[in-house]
Amino acid sequence: MGEVFAGRYELVDPIGRGGAGAVWRSWDHRRKRYVAAKVLQQSDAHTLLRFVREQALRIDHPHVLAPTSWAADDDQVLFTMDLVSGGSLAHLLGDYGKLPPATVLTLLDQLLAGLSAVHAEDVVHRDIKPANILLEATGTGRPHLRVSDFGISMRKGEPRLTETNFIVGTPGYFAPEQLLGADPDFTADLYAVGLVALYLLTGVKPDSRALVETYRREGGVPAAPEYVPEPLWHVLGTLLQPDPAARFKTALGVRKALADCGELIKNPADGGSSPTVEVFDQIGPLPAGYGPDGPQPSGARALQDEPTRTAAGPPPGAPPTGAGSTGTARPGAASETGSFRLAPPSSPPPASPHSPPPDPAAVSPGAPYPYPTEGTYGYPPHGGGAAPHPSTGQPPGSHPQSARSAAPRPGPSAKVAVPVLMLAFVLIAVGVWALTQS
């Protein structure tokens, strides 16, 4: 049996990890179903505040994956979400490279539908990227995506949790105005949608800085990139305008514009045929001792075959899942979301005593703008370190007591201990003498 958290959630196996915590497949003993549980691993004030913000978000929409409940147990906290097993758009890109325009149009429509529901709650997501857009395992059927990971989202008007000269998000998906320190806004999310769309159509991660320079050099929207249909580029080119005032203002407006050019995209010149894109299960089978209806009795667990513990790969005939991939379930990779320092002003402002401490992942002011490799938050497309155990913080396989084997704290020095002991003996002697005189 796995560890039971707060008497309700049984942690089954790790399926990913983000910047603030590990994500586990868990069995909800109350609702009798499997859920995804994000276990917070850090307890500093900033992380706890972000946790409170994220778990408080309640958006009921078919294309949004928001927290459904939360629990606390001693010094550990978690919140749960629906279990989505089809991986993310990062998986799809790793499996197929560039996607057919008709498939991209379907995915964009769903992404914008979910984002429209998020914006309707006055929430700016701030971390739209392929790894945060999860997919149901629909096979060769119509894909179904869900916007996830609201760890750095915020409602418009809420106080920031970082200093004003820091930017929070994922390098490569920042809107130009974010790099200038502008307040989070819906148009920044829409800019990131444009970058994601370009990635899906070309199979190559866009260079945001180079794109901005191209717009400035051309004095407007440049020519459509290779593999991007002209009708679709009219919409994406507006989304990617460096000036936020020149972009679409709402996700609903983008959906309407895409619908207008949809017929041209859905009927390609090759007769309407389009390669089949399959979204298969990326999590793999349950470990020994667990079945579709939850934990199995101990007798049934003992009868399970050891070879069945290995994760199943893609169905026969499916494309490979990336270079060097074996198709087995892979451990979680760390999220690349973080805080990054903006270019400092000519004269740095004095530090406020109430300012929060800088994020350890922040980039130094003089360092070039970073572009780390693609990672994921929920279900990682490629290898990485396994998620540590939520209680001990140790990697799987390590002894659970190893975290407690630190050296004992040193006591006071002899110069302090001896006088204190002598004083104690004197006080005891005086007390005994006083008692004998009464």
TrEMBL record:
Domain Protein kinase: 9-259
Bias type Low complexity, positions: 320-335, 361-380, 399-413
Segments crossing the lipid bilayer: 416-435
Pfam families noted in UniProt: Pkinase
InterPro entries, A to Z: Kinase-like_dom_sf, Prot_kinase_dom, Ser/Thr_kinase_AS
Location of region: Disordered: 266-413
Name of the protein: non-specific serine/threonine protein kinase
